[in-house]
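Next up, sample data.

:::
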Amino acid sequence: MYNICMMAILVLSSLSLFVFHDDTFATHISKPILTMDKQNFEINETITVKGWVEYQNNPASDVLLDIIVINEPDGGNELIRSQVVSNDTGNFTSNVILPVNTGPGNYTLTVISQCREEHRNICTNQHSSIPISIVKS
């Protein structure tokens, strides 16, 4: 019985490769590309995070993205985490507001591709990071 079940799983898995459209695999290795206007911000300034999701040099829509801001001197203390989904043209924009007690310093802003909902369990979660600086107003 075990062999029959395993054989059925293998056959169904193989057949599923032919059922999906070409873009089905597009978000498994999609990567966020950041296109930030600036990297220096004042305390209490809203940080506009923007970019697009790339798969084989083409935009990928409906990809869930995690946005994380990490305080570097504190050894990776996560200040904030938010999410955004890429639109029909593969672009994303999100306004991030840091906690009120955020001090000046060097931080890392990271965006992680969580892929499309239906592919999340087989996604490779590519990411892009940029350094940002927070300065006193």
Summary: Residues 111 and 128 are 5 Å apart (CA to CA).
